[in-house]
Design goal:
By secondary structure, the protein is an alpha+beta fold. It has a domain of 301 residues. 60% of the residues lie in helices and 8% in strands. It contains 24 helices and 13 strands. The two termini are 39 Å apart. Its main location: membrane.
Length: 822
């Protein structure tokens, strides 16, 4: 069952049925060559290092200072990346050699570049703030100047009118009034002050009310709307604003107005009273704006050039920093020898990688000019090794489906091998329609043909998940086309692809009759369901019977496969107890009942018998000694049923009772020294340890009651599960029926109905509804539903027969993995 590809050398044999044989290594590395050694081992990516300093905090470890340096450099690189993204630049993707620059040589330039960029940004922000303030100032000068100009014109006109009135209406009182006015003390005359600025338009009404209340109405406020939004100097965002001009009397009123302006975020600007000075100020502000614009543009150009220079080197720097950080992080997992001259490393690696690791150690010793080479040795251990399957882009998605349930125990049978075929096949049994299968195939071919381009892009969550499972969907589509041809359904429409139907109608009322209205005139339809069944009254009874029996056959076959794999596990781990007291009784129990039912189904199909299988199975338990009568399918059936029933009853105590006593005896023998054997090889040691540890006893105290209760639960679970799991496979029939009926409804009640109106608009609308219903319901929701049901059948009904799934993944120290993580 193994999948082999290549052998020996750098291309080890690929075996998906069992995980790769692993070994525990110990490396003693001189400190002067430790960094170079880890760099080469990271490139190799075939050692999972153990943390030998787990009791130490990150700050107490040897290379904490180097990791801190790397983290600081990574922070600077993230800052550069953010700045490039804001500027609309992207780092150069061209590949560069990483040997051009060293870590120590990179730290100083990064600091200088960061300081320069921060200074440029700070100066740019100051200049931009000044520019925005000047823009607001110019608008204030223009709007307030218009107000003063109109007020002066109005005052001049009023003064002229008042002067002409005085000369024409002189009276005896006039000299006295003029004398009183001229004799008034100049120090007692009221002087008005004013403040000008801009306030956000959304706050202008509240600003006006607060000013009125705070000064008890002793202000005069004038506002002018700015037509275009202006950039706020503080926030840097575009805001709609109004220019305001406040006239007040007294210092107390002025202080109140200033505080209110600050509270409302209103920017105040100085404003000259003289109209001549106003025009001069507008010209000066315009000149300063022009100068600032030129300076800002030059600064942006310089910043863009600097970021472009950084972008050309960014990927190289980022790769170097991440490599160095991962190297020092791994070096911190190594323990220092008492002489302070060597580092001791322990880790798991595949057996096939021994030669490659030794070559990497020799190369590191030579390149670092170390006088002493690293020492490589294999340790014998009782620890359970990690699980490592070598997958490719096709098998990785199927292995992920299995690992989502639980990672395989070291070297136990891997259901991923069978999942490659059984998962898409069971999906297709529920989804069988070759029209829908072609739609799925076209969709997944888009991802497969563009996989190089799409793999380098950042996709959305759902798109990325679909892209990752593109080969699973490909297999699902191909199997759906096959089962669709078996069901003879193309968007629920049957076709005579493989010849003419074997039946014809006896009369015109045949379509509304049962199968009695059909006469067989030709050979049996060569592949799949005869198209004449579709549309007849007997279509549902016929297809229901066919699909229900087929579901039971498929279910019993897959459950038997699971039990057979438990036998291969037991043989591999040399566990004879599981062979004789788990595999055998389980096979006998399952096949005495449901294997027998499957046999009856096949016999009934072959003989054309009308026996009631429900009646046969029920009375096999209720009245096993009664005659079967017309339900007898073959001679001696009654005797066969009695024997099978007896075997099923015997299999239950066979599973339950002997195994706990045998395990107790094995435990006792092992502690008396009868089971000790010399170690022959690492692989044998690991396998024998896995056998002993699989029951969770090891050298602990043997609790017979716990083992017996565990076996009792396991036996009850299997006996009840044999019934419930077989019934669970009927979901294949139910979902296949639902998919077929939904497809028929959309075809007949939408497409054909709209076609019957002979109206092009109704036909177009009906076609659009049919397309959306097919895509939305049948190609999305039904696909997801069938996928989840196929997943459940594999996880629960299939894998619980043999799969422990209590292992842990092999996660080697590798720069290839590190490049995917930030």
């Amino acid at each position: 069952m193994a999948v082999h590809g290549g052998g020996g050398g750098c291309c080890p044999p690929m075996d998906l049925f069992r995980s790769e044989p692993m070994q525990l290594l110990q490396l003693i590395i001189p400190i002067e060559s430790a960094h170079q050694t880890l760099a080469y081992l990271g490139d190799l990516g075939l050692i999972q290092f153990k943390d030998l300093n787990a009791e130490k905090s990150p700050f107490q470890r040897t290379y904490a200072a180097q990791i801190k340096r790397c983290a600081e450099m990574a922070r600077k690189l993230r800052f550069f990346r953010d700045q490039m993204l804001k500027a609309g630049l992207s780092p150069s993707a061209k590949s560069v050699s990483r040997a051009d620059i060293d870590m120590d040589d990179l730290e100083v330039p990064l600091g200088e570049l960061e300081a320069e960029l921060i200074e440029i940004n700070a100066n740019g922000e100051k200049l931009l703030r000044s520019y925005n303030e000047l823009v607001e100032y110019k608008l204030v000068l223009q709007k307030a100047g218009e107000f003063f100009h109109s007020a002066q014109n109005s005052a001049t006109a009023q003064q002229r009118a008042f002067g002409s009135q005085q000369t024409g209406d002189e009276s005896l009182d006039t000299p006295l009034l003029l004398e009183q006015e001229t004799s008034t003390d100049p120090s007692k005359q009221v002087k008005l002050g004013f403040l000008a600025g801009v306030v956000p338009r959304g706050k202008s009404m509240a600003f006006e009310r607060i000013l009125f209340r705070a000064t008890r109405g002793n202000v005069f406020l004038n506002q002018a709307v700015l037509e275009d939004p202006v950039i706020d100097p503080v926030s840097g965002e575009k805001v709609e604003k109004n220019v305001f001009l406040v006239f007040y009397s007294g210092e107390r009123a002025k202080n109140k107005i200033i505080k209110i302006c600050e509270a409302f975020g209103a920017n105040r600007y100085s404003f000259p009273e003289d109209l001549g000075n106003q025009a001069q100020m507008v010209n000066e502000v315009s000149e300063r704006l022009s100068e600032l614009k030129t300076t800002i543009d030059a600064g942006l150009l310089h910043r863009g050039n600097l970021l472009q220079t950084i972008g050309e080197q960014y990927e190289q720097w980022n790769l170097l920093v991440r490599r160095e950080k991962s190297i020092y992080h791994t070096l911190n997992m190594l323990s220092i020898d008492v002489t302070k001259k060597c580092l001791v490393a322990e880790g798991w690696s595949p057996v096939f990688a021994t030669k490659q690791i030794q070559e990497a150690l020799q190369r590191a010793t030579f390149d670092s000019n170390s006088q002493v080479g690293a020492i490589f040795q294999i340790l014998h251990t009782k620890e359970s090794p990690p699980t490592y399957f070598q997958t490719n882009k096709f098998t990785s998605a199927f292995q992920t489906i299995v690992d989502a349930y639980g990672v395989a125990k070291y070297q136990e049978a891997n259901p991923g091998v069978f999942t490659i075929v059984t998962f898409p096949f069971l999906f297709a049994v529920m989804f069988g329609d070759w029209g829908h299968g072609i739609c799925l195939l076209l969709g997944t071919l888009y991802f497969i043909l563009r996989e190089k381009k799409l793999s380098s892009q950042k996709l959305g969550d759902i798109t990325e998940m679909t892209f990752g499972g593109r080969y699973v969907i490909l297999m699902m589509a191909l199997f759906s086309i096959y089962t669709g041809l078996i069901y003879n359904e193309f968007f629920s429409v049957p076709f005579e692809l493989f010849g003419r139907s074997a039946y014809v109608c006896r009369d015109l009322s045949c379509r509304d009759a049962t199968t009695a209205g059909l006469i067989k005139v030709g050979d049996t339809y060569p592949l799949g369901v005869d198209p004449v069944w579709h549309g007849t009254r007997s279509e549902l009874p016929f297809l229901n019977s066919l699909k229900m029996k087929m579901s039971i056959l498929l279910g019993v076959a897959q459950m038997n496969l699971g039990i057979i794999l438990s036998y291969f596990n037991a043989k591999f781990f040399r566990n004879s107890v599981n062979v004789w007291f788990q595999f055998l009784p389980q096979m006998i129990f399952l096949n005495s009942l449901f294997g027998y039912l499957s046999l009856l189904i096949i016999v009934k199909w072959c003989t054309g018998s009308k026996a009631d299988l429900y009646h046969v199975m029920i009375y096999m338990f209720l009245s096993p000694t009664d005659d079967l009568g017309e339900n007898e399918l073959f001679a001696g059936q009654k005797t066969v049923q009695l024997v099978l029933l007896l075997l099923a009853l015997v299999a239950v105590p066979w599973m339950l009772i002997p195994k706990p006593f045998l395990l107790k005896k094995q435990h006792k023998d092992r502690h008396q020294g009868q089971s000790y054997m010399p170690l022959q090889s690492t692989e044998d040691t690991l396998q024998s340890e896995a056998t002993h540890d699989s029951h969770g006893h090891g050298h602990e105290e043997f609790e017979f009651s716990e083992v017996f209760v565990h076996q009792l639960i396991h036996t009850i679970e299997f006996v009840l599960g044999a019934v419930s799991n077989t019934a669970s496979y009927l979901r294949l029939w139910a979902l296949s029926l639902a998919h077929s009926e939904l497809s028929t409804v959309f075809y007949e009640k939408v497409l054909l109905l709209s076609w019957g109106y002979n109206n092009i608009i109704i036909l177009i609308v009906g076609g659009i509804i049919f397309i959306f219903a097919t895509v939305g319901v049948l190609l999305v929701m039904e696909t997801l539903s069938a996928f989840l049901h196929a997943l459940r059948l594999h996880w629960v009904e299939f894998q619980n027969k043999f799969y422990e799934g209590d292992g842990y993944n092999f996660l080697p120290f590798s720069f290839a993995f590190g490049d995917e993580e930030e």
